[in-house]
Every structure is written in C-alpha cells, then in structure tokens.
C-alpha cells in the first residue's frame, strides 16, 4: 500500500511517500523539502511555528530514502533548515538520491567544482560563504548515509519492494548543469503578471510550446514509481522533452500510454514543462500541482488549459485551497464542465 501526501511547501515541492509492504513494514520516501518554512518559520511574535515537514518528522518517522530532485531553493531549503536545526536529523535519514556536483563530475569525467555543490551553512547567517559551511554530500558521508552514484534517465532501480524507472536527467542535461548553472540563478518563469485573466478557452494547441531552458531544472530527477498494482509519476522540475524520450524508450506510446494513478506536474504547473506530447504518453485522471502561487505566476493557466483540453475530465489537485478562485472563472467551468478540483492528496 502506498500513501502519498503533497505537503504545503510554499512555492516549492515536498512530497512524502509511505509504503507498507506485505510484512507490514513501512518505508518513508521524502521527495524534496520545499522552502525553509516547510520545516519551520518565525511568526510575527518571533516564535517558531512548525511547518508540514516538521510536523511529519515529529511523528518520529525515519526517512528511509531522501530524494533531492535538484538543487533549487524551493526544493532543498526546507531540508537545509531541518539539518541545521535538528541535531538528530542525519540519524533519521537512511539513504539519499542526489546528483551532487561531485557525483556528476565523476560520472562525466569532468573537473570537480565545489561551486556546483549544495552547501549547508553552519552559522545562522543565511549569507554564509562556502568556508562557513559543508557540502551536503560530505555531511552524508560523515554520517554514514548511503549516497548513490549518479541517478540518470533510463536507469531501472528497485528498493523497498518498489520499482523506479528514471526518466530524467539525461547525460546532456547533467553536462549543461555543470557548465552553465550559477548559484541563485532563476528559471525563465519570471513574469510579474499571471495569465489568469484569460479564459481556458482562450488557449489552443496552436500556441507555440516553448520548453523550459533552466540548467538546474534540466538536471532534475524525474521517475515512475511502481508497486504491485499502480504507477505514480513524479516529474520534479524536469524538461518534458527528456521525459518524453525516456517514456518512449520504456515502450510507452500514444496508443499504449503509461497508466498512472497521477502525475505530479513538473515545475509547479509551468507552461514550459508540460507538453502535449508528454500528456499523450500518460493515461491518468489526476494531476498534482504543488505551489501556493506566490512566485513565478505558477501554475500557468495555459498549462492547465493544455491538460483540460487533453483530458476534459481531469482532476486537478492543489495543495493550497485559494488557487481555485484565483485561477478559474465561472465561464471556465461552463466551457469545461467536467474537470474537477481537489485540495488534498491521499493516494
């Protein structure tokens, strides 16, 4: 049995997957950690408040597998906050999948550059330099945490009785990441205004699709997770062309698509990360959008329109309830009466 929860992670991703096997053993997989407040934040009175991630960890669970899909702030900052504030954090983590700069450099036979690493600041100052911190991979090694080799597209892995087909990144995207990624760089989704003033019907397949070109997003780990009964598609912030290429490699076609319980949409529902071709290779009713909409105008209505045109009965699952009224108009629901909206995920 698998239970999946899309935790409230601000404008980021933090997904907890719990798998109970036939022997009644439960394994927890944490996919990313969202922004810092996903773990905890100070309120206006200066007191700390627990975020969704800390509330789950307070249940004294272990994280049997931590998957950090890529290095962007809205995916790893909650993990950094946890590691800095919980002296027992590393004792709760058993295994890690993360394509560190060191691992990628070794895989590509390139010179290792510490500036491409995930640095965990030691001091309280968030502007701490590299000299005042340690790399995440180094801290894992110090704490005897299993740290895998590079996780790349077309790999097939098995752990806890679950099967993983890795869809992203490919070698080309890893190389671009090492060559071009700069700390604190941002993706192309920097529009100040959202596209919510448009009706769903205003968009069409004639709109030219422009793929995300962020090097860090291109390095994102994406995968199909499968148990004995179902498939679950987690896309991180991956580039759709790479996911499409991998799905085809694994034998999926428009006439024989992957049947999945859901898609966790790439890059919080960005217009640049969900293509028509990708949607045609996956048969599902449920599309998860992880964001509170506070940055980069995510999700883009153009992306949601593309999904609804492809699947008029789509169930859009938001992990923040205010997005429905913000995005959709009464005319949208008249034009497309069969799509549904949910606010929590318990799969």
Notes on the structure:
The chain has 347 residues and is of the alpha/beta class. It has two domains: 2-150, no CATH class; 167-342, no CATH class. It has twelve helices and 20 strands. The strands form five sheets. Strands 11-12-13-14-16-18-19-20 form an eight-stranded mixed beta sheet. A six-stranded mixed beta sheet has the order 1-2-3-6-7-10, with helices on one face. β1 (2-6) and β2 form a beta hairpin. The termini are close together. The model is unreliable at 123-132 (pLDDT under 50).
Give the helix/strand class. alpha/beta
Cα distance, first to last residue?
A: 9 Å
Strand order of the largest sheet: 11-12-13-14-16-18-19-20
What is the tally of helical segments? 12
Summarize model confidence as the mean pLDDT.
90
Helix content: 25-40%
In percent, how much strand structure appears in the residues?
A: 15-25%
Number of domains: 2
Low-confidence blocks of residues: 123-132
Q: What is the count of β-strands?
A: 20
Biggest sheet features: 8 strands, mixed
Tell me, what's the shape? Answer: globular
Based on CA atoms alone, the radius of gyration comes out at 19 Å
């Amino acid at each position: 049995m698998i239970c999946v929860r899309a935790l409230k992670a601000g404008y980021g991703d933090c997904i907890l997957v719990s798998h109970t096997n036939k022997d009644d053993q439960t394994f927890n997989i944490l996919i990313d950690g969202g922004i810092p407040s996903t773990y905890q934040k100070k309120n206006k009175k200066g007191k700390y408040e627990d975020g969704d991630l800390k509330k789950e960890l307070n249940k004294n669970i272990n994280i049997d597998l931590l998957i950090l899909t890529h290095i962007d702030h809205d995916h790893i900052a909650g993990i950094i906050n946890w590691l800095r504030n919980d002296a027992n954090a590393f004792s709760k983590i058993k295994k890690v999948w993360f394509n560190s700069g060191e691992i990628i450099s070794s895989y590509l036979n390139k010179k290792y550059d510490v500036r491409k690493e995930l640095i965990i600041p030691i001091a309280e100052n968030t502007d701490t330099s590299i000299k005042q911190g340690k790399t995440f991979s180094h801290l894992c090694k110090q704490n005897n945490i299993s740290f895998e080799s590079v996780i790349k597209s077309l790999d097939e892995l098995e752990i806890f009785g679950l099967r993983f087909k890795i869809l992203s990144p490919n070698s080309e995207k890893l190389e671009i990441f090492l060559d071009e990624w700069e700390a604190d760089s941002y993706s192309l989704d920097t529009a100040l205004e959202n596209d919510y003033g448009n009706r769903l019907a205003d968009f069409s397949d004639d709109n030219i699709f422009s793929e995300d070109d962020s090097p860090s997003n291109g390095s994102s780990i994406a995968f199909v997770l499968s148990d004995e009964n179902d498939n679950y598609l987690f896309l991180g912030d991956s580039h759709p062309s790479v996911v499409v290429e991998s799905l085809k490699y694994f034998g999926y076609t428009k006439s024989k698509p992957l049947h999945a319980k859901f898609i966790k949409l790439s890059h919080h529902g960005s217009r640049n990360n969900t293509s028509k071709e990708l949607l045609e290779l996956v048969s599902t009713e449920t599309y998860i959008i992880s964001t509170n909409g506070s940055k980069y105008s995510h999700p883009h209505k153009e992306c949601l329109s593309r999904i609804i045109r492809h699947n008029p009965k789509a169930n859009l699952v938001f992990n923040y309830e205010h997005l429905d009224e913000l995005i959709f108009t009464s005319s949208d629901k008249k034009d497309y009466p069969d799509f549904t909206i949910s606010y929590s995920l318990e799969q």
